[in-house]
């Protein structure tokens, strides 16, 4: 029975990462003809629309909150991370963009230590060091092919970590549907403002890509949620790194991107750090895995 649950969970995660990588590829495609401001808005707007059936079923009473300030902080940090990630996806090789996004867990323990006073485990300290070495290989400082835009992705990972800590702070009083709704509402409202000066009327084909981006992203999040529900997050967590395989395949097939040797080395360091940090998962690590679902909008 446990083996069946593990297999199902792994398959859910593999399928989820495929869809989320496909969404990243669509974002990269759309960024060639639409400004990032529009792409971020429609990602949030269609995500918010997807929640309406759930809200209709549970009623508006489930949206009552006394923590609107924390919702606002989570929304602003989350949407800042989204802008950064989407910009990076559109401007550097897809594999490198996904690798940079995978650094988010390395900032999370630092922020929880500074903000919540949570101790950092020995395993995690080593994972942070190893992970940052991987980031250096991706950035390639001092080399002719230095990738400065990846720094934006690193800062986006910091903001994504802040957003995840906000989720943790609200978890005791706020159900997941309320957290996700206010995130979608705040992000849609904030990202609608830049449309005043950045709007471009999409073609029919582009509208289809935008709708597809929203549907594929939502389906990916649903599958990821299901995976963490049926299996131990610590056991299926490593399967999130399948996103690198998918991203490399999409990047090579559609844009002729071939990962550099330094990118491959950085990949080894980041995956190794992530796997090392998953050794003997604690209750807190399982919560980190659950939190990843809520912030994984890029």
Describe this structure in words.
- Helix 1 packs antiparallel against helix 10 and helix 4 packs antiparallel against helix 12.
- The protein is globular, with a radius of gyration of 18 Å.
- The C terminus is likely disordered.
- The chain is built from 14 helices and no strands.
- It is an all-alpha fold and 298 residues long.
- The longest helix is centred in the first third of the chain and has 29 residues.
- It has one domain.
Secondary-structure blueprint:
Layout: H1 2-30, H2 36-58, H3 68-91, H4 94-101, H5 104-116, H6 122-139, H7 149-170, H8 176-192, H9 195-198, H10 204-230, H11 233-236, H12 242-255, H13 261-277, H14 283-295
Helix pairs in contact: 1-3, 1-10, 1-12, 2-3, 2-8, 2-10, 3-4, 3-7, 3-8, 4-7, 4-12, 5-7, 6-13, 7-14, 10-14
- List SSEs in N-to-C order: HHHHHHHHHHHHHH
Using the alpha-carbon principal axes, give the shape.
globular
Mean pLDDT: 84
Strand coverage percent:
under 5%
How many β strands by DSSP?
0
Number of helical elements: 14
Give helix % range: over 70%
Specify the structural class: mainly alpha
The end-to-end span amounts to: 33 Å
Largest sheet: none
Compute the gyration radius: what is it? 18 Å
* Total tally of structural domains: 1
Short description:
The protein is mainly α.
Offer a few descriptive terms.
mainly alpha, 14 helices, disordered C terminus
